[in-house]
């Protein structure tokens, strides 16, 4: 496990959505990657998952009651938000979204958000009808207008057995969004084309000439450039790697295809990084039928 979040103070606000159990896994991953995770739970969240689960996974006591925390002199209602590097509210119920959108400060989570001087990311999770309700849509828009980042929910089967938007995205995607919020956006406005992976030169319909490039270098460059705010186009040979979050990917097979794709796309680019292992050789003629081994 990498130490990517080492030393980052991350407040995770868990609210009363059925998806709260998923966020237990996220908290565990953040803590394993070195983050100092403080979990704040609403009263409703505590009825769905016990605070003990989040305490065990984060390695820190869970805060649930604003007044109890103050009385115990453990943490003040403004301290968490003002000291955090990042606040993530996940899952965020329609109710909490409404309260944050309208500036409420009636529990520890909402006061933490009001006092936060760092980026606040909100990951809505709810039934599709609740999400598409005009009141919720307006509240989500208000969150964006005051500068909070909304982690867009994805479509799929909901806990209530209906299909539609409202599910939390997968951790790998959310992780990328958290990392982007923690790093300086010094590549914002840049358009970067990156080539990656091997090419394949067909010998006949069954065989090809290629190399051992896995594409890891180009994909890592693409991921990092995206995290730093760039608009990234990845022109990739065949690899088994997943497309980095938010990166546009064009797949090619041959060196010729790599060349024409790069030439077509390069006009718009401010930077081009050629990390692909392009084949040095290709056959003069590609055989139309599979070459029999007896004819080799
Ligand atoms: C089993 C169960 C699951 C729920 N799941 C959700 C949900 O996924 N999203 C949502 O917005 N509300 C959901 N609710 C409703 C919220 O718990 C309710 O609106 C509550 O007041 C939210 O309080 P909070 O925002 O302070 O956590 C659920 C309620 C129950 C009983």
List its salient traits.
five-stranded parallel sheet, binds flavin mononucleotide, alpha/beta, 296 residues, four-stranded parallel sheet, 2 domains, 20% strand, Rossmann fold, elongated, 13 strands, 12 helices
Describe this structure in words.
With 296 residues, the protein is α/β, with parallel strands linked by helices. It folds into two domains: 9-182, Rossmann fold, CATH 3.40.50; 191-274, CoaB-like (Rossmann fold, 3-Layer(aba) Sandwich). Helix content is 36%, strand content 20%. The chain contains twelve helices and 13 strands. Strands 2-1-3-4-5 form a five-stranded parallel beta sheet, sandwiched between helices. It has a four-stranded parallel beta sheet with strand order 12-11-8-13, with helices on both faces. Strand 1 (9-14), helix 1 and strand 2 (36-41) form a beta-alpha-beta unit. The mean pLDDT is 94. Bound molecules: flavin mononucleotide. Flavin mononucleotide is lined by residues 15-19, 42, 44-45, 93-96, 125-126, 130.
Distinct bound molecules:
flavin mononucleotide
Q: Strand count, sense and closure of the main sheet? A: 5 strands, parallel
Shape: elongated
Number of separate helices: 12
Whole-number tally of structural domains: 2
CATH class wording of the largest domain? Alpha Beta
Write the CATH fold name of the largest domain: Rossmann fold
């Amino acid at each position: 496990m990498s130490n990517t979040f080492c030393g980052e103070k991350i407040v995770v606000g868990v609210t009363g959505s059925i998806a709260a159990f998923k966020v237990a896994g996220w908290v565990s991953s953040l803590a394993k990657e070195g983050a100092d995770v403080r979990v704040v739970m609403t009263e409703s969240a505590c009825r769905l998952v016990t605070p003990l689960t989040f305490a065990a996974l984060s390695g820190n006591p869970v805060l649930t009651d604003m007044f109890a925390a103050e009385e115990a002199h453990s943490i003040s209602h403004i301290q968490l938000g003002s000291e955090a590097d990042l606040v993530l509210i996940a899952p965020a119920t329609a109710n909490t979204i409404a309260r944050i959108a309208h500036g409420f400060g009636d529990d520890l989570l909402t006061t933490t958000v009001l006092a936060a001087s760092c980026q606040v990311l909100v990951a809505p999770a709810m039934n599709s009808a609740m999400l598409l309700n005009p009141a919720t849509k307006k509240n989500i828009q208000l969150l964006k207008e005051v500068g909070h980042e909304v982690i867009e929910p994805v479509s799929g089967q909901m806990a209530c057995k209906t299909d539609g938007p409202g599910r939390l995205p997968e951790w790998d995607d959310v992780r990328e969004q958290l990392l982007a919020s923690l790093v300086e956006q010094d590549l914002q406005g840049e358009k970067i084309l990156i080539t990656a992976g091997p090419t394949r030169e067909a010998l006949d319909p069954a065989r090809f000439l290629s190399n051992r490039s896995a594409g890891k270098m180009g994909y890592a460059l693409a991921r990092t450039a995206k995290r730093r705010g760039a608009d990234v186009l990845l022109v990739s040979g065949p690899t088994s790697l997943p497309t980095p979050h938010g990166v546009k990917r064009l797949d090619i097979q041959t060196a010729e295809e790599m060349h024409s794709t790069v030439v077509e796309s390069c006009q718009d680019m401010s930077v081009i990084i050629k990390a692909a292992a392009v084949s040095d050789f290709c056959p003069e003629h590609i055989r139309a039928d599979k070459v029999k081994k007896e004819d080799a």
